[in-house]
C-alpha cells in the first residue's frame, strides 16, 4: 500500500531527502530513549532534539523541523520531576506548539493524516476486536502482575462516583486523542515521508509508543510489549481507515478500561 492510499490524496505529498530521512529516524529514536531516568536527568534528549529542530530549520527540511517541535517541547517539559504527574497535559502542550503551524504544515503535505477517514466492515471488525482484546489484556496484566500504580491513582481526583466517572471519561478522551495525534499522526507521517516503507513506519512508531510506557500504564517491560502491540493495532486501524478518527475512538475504550482499573480496582 502506497503512502497516497493512507491519507488525503487531495493534499501534496512530502518526500524527505536522504539525510533528512536519517535525522528523522534518529529524532524518533532519541525521543524514545528519554524514558530512561539515567538519560533524562542528563538533559541530553531535549538538547539533541533542539539541535535536530535547528538543523531542519537551517536546511529547510520541513518534516524534520515540524516533527521535532512537539518532541522537543515534550522532552524539555519532562526534565522537570513533577511533569510526569501532569500527563497527558504535557503532551497536549507539546501538540499545541505543533498546531500553531497548522496551515504551514498542511501545505507541506505532512497533515494528510488529519482527516476522519473511512469506515468499512473491515475497520469496524478490527476496531471491535482490538477494543475487546486490549481491555482483556489490561485486566489480565493488572491481576496477574499486581503492579504498583499508586502514583497514577494519585493523579486522579477523589470524590463521589459521578465525579470519578467524569474524570475517567475526560482522561480517556484527552489521552487517547493526544497520543494518537503524536504517534499514529505526526510520527507515522514523518516516517512515511522519510521513505520508510508502510511496514517499517508502522513498526517503528509502535516501538516508540511501547517503550514510552515503561513507567506508564501498562508499565514495566511486559507493559512495553503490550503497548507496542497496541500501537501496531491502532496503526493498522489508521492505515485501513485512512484517517485518525477511528484510531482515537479505539484508543478511548482502552483508556476507559485503564481509568476503571485505576479508580475502582486499585487500593
UniProtKB/TrEMBL annotation:
The keyword Iron-sulfur does not apply. It comes from Leptospira neocaledonica. One of its GO terms (molecular function) is endopeptidase activity. Keywords: Hydrolase, Membrane, Metalloprotease, Protease, Transmembrane, Transmembrane helix. Pfam families: Rce1-like. Residues 164-256 form the CAAX prenyl protease 2/Lysostaphin resistance protein A-like domain. InterPro entries: Rce1/LyrA-like_dom. GO terms for biological process: CAAX-box protein maturation; proteolysis. This is CPBP family intramembrane metalloprotease. The chain crosses the membrane at residues 21-36, 42-59, 64-80, 86-102, 123-143, 163-183, 195-214, 220-237, 244-265. The keyword Membrane applies. Coiled coil: none annotated.
Amino acid at each position: 500500500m502506497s503512502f497516497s492510499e493512507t491519507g488525503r490524496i487531495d493534499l501534496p505529498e512530502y518526500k524527505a531527502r536522504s539525510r533528512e530521512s536519517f535525522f528523522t529516524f534518529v529524532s524518533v529514536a532519541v525521543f524514545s530513549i528519554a524514558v530512561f531516568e539515567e538519560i533524562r536527568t542528563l538533559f541530553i534528549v531535549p538538547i539533541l532534539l533542539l539541535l535536530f529542530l535547528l538543523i531542519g530549520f537551517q536546511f529547510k527540511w520541513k518534516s524534520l523541523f515540524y516533527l521535532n517541535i512537539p518532541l522537543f517541547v515534550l522532552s524539555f517539559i519532562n526534565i522537570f520531576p513533577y511533569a510526569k504527574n501532569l500527563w497527558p497535559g504535557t503532551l497536549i502542550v507539546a501538540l499545541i506548539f505543533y498546531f500553531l503551524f497548522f496551515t504551514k504544515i498542511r501545505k507541506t503535505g505532512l497533515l494528510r493524516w488529519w482527516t476522519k477517514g473511512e469506515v468499512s466492515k473491515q475497520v469496524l471488525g478490527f476496531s471491535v476486536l482490538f477494543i475487546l482484546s486490549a481491555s482483556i489484556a489490561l485486566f489480565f496484566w493488572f491481576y496477574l502482575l499486581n503492579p504498583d500504580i499508586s502514583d497514577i491513582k494519585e493523579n486522579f481526583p477523589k470524590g463521589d462516583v459521578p465525579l470519578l466517572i467524569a474524570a475517567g471519561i475526560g482522561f480517556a478522551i484527552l489521552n487517547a486523542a493526544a497520543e494518537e495525534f503524536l504517534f499514529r499522526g505526526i510520527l507515522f507521517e514523518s516516517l512515511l515521508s522519510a521513505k520508510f516503507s508502510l511496514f517499517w513506519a508502522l513498526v517503528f512508531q509502535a516501538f516508540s509508543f511501547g517503550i514510552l510506557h515503561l513507567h506508564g500504564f501498562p508499565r514495566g517491560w511486559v507493559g512495553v510489549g503490550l503497548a507496542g502491540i497496541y500501537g501496531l493495532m491502532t496503526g493498522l486501524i489508521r492505515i485501513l481507515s485512512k484517517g485518525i478518527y477511528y484510531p482515537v475512538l479505539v484508543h478511548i475504550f482502552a483508556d476507559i478500561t485503564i481509568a476503571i482499573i485505576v479508580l475502582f480496582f486499585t487500593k
